[in-house]
Amino acid sequence: MEYLNAFLCGGLLCAVGQILIDKTKLSPARILVSYVVAGVVLGAVGLYQPLVEWGGAGATVPLTGFGYNLAKGVGEAVAEKGFLGALSGGVKAAAAGISAAVFFGYLVALVFKPGDKN
Questions:
Q1: Are residues 54 and 9 in contact, defined by beta-carbon separation less than 8 angstroms?
Q2: Contact 58, 6 (CB under 8 A)
Q3: Which sequence ranges are marked TM in the entry (predicted)?
């Protein structure tokens, strides 16, 4: 059942993004930023945690999950370090994901030899 919930949650988030791309004049970059901000806001007001508990990776892997992770990290760091935690908590919480993205992006670049499309 966990796999089905993750599939449904992640699929719904992706479907909403695709509908926004198809039916609005919003650029993909604005939609992506909106997803991150939505994750931060929903995490800050406590609405994203129940979605994470139900959807698992379907809620934590998309960009809304990244925003939620940032907000959660900032909240924990502020409770621990005060104001300085607001500046460092989000990056610390998301460091593993950011590092993995950079590392695997580099590996893929080595294997496929990217170049200019011209």
A1: yes
A2: yes
A3: 32-51, 93-112
